[in-house]
Amino acid sequence: MYRLIALGLGYLLGGIQTAILYGRLQGIEIREHGSGNAGATNTLRVLGKKAALIVFIGDVLKAAAAVMIAKLLFPDTSLLAGLYAGIGAIIGHSYPLFFKFKGGKGIAVTVGTIYFIDIRIALIVSLIFIISAWTTRIVSSSSLLLTGFIPILLYVFYKGSPNIVEIVCLGVVIAGITAYRHKENIARLLNGTESKLGSKK
């Protein structure tokens, strides 16, 4: 039961669309500009660095809230509860109930989830993302790397847990959601047409 509660809690909080709400305060519908994605990267392209930072922080905080509340509600299974809440937040962000199920790709939400699940894993995947983004200037491939390492690191740090199979599977789900949400980016990466940081496309 705690799994469903944590998942539902995360979904509702994840559905708070920072990019859409901030864009409307600026008089635009963010999903009608740039890539059409309601996330920090598209906000950066459309509205600039300050707006992107605000959106990123907002998306991180809603995931953090979901994870922390789930952990407090279910202290005996805090890791699993936190992971389910985080996955719920990622799904809610990607397919928000109150915004016609058209949201963002969930990377900032994933970051917020992992930072409040395990700071060690968060710091490692953040470093991986930074190095990749710095060298390639491609956010999508860097995001795929970030989430791809999550199940691996969950195994490394929790391999002694009796719930290790479920823990790793949830990490795979997070990576899988990212891959699915980036399927168009993956196609562009394969044919060499993916946008880089600084591009308006």
From TrEMBL:
Cellular component terms (Gene Ontology): plasma membrane
Highest rank taxon of the organism: Bacteria
Lineage summary: Bacteria, Bacillati, Bacillota, Clostridia, Lachnospirales
UniProt keyword annotations, A-Z: Acyltransferase, Cell membrane, Lipid biosynthesis, Lipid metabolism, Membrane, Phospholipid biosynthesis, Phospholipid metabolism, Transferase, Transmembrane, Transmembrane helix
Substrates-to-products reaction catalysed: an acyl phosphate + sn-glycerol 3-phosphate = a 1-acyl-sn-glycero-3-phosphate + phosphate
EC number(s) reported in the record: 2.3.1.275
UniProt GO BP: phospholipid biosynthetic process
Pathway: Lipid metabolism; phospholipid metabolism
Membrane topology: Multi-pass membrane protein
Ranges that cross the membrane: 51-74, 81-101, 107-131, 138-158, 164-180
KW Lipid metabolism (keyword) present: yes
Protein name in UniProt: Glycerol-3-phosphate acyltransferase
Top-tier EC class: transferase
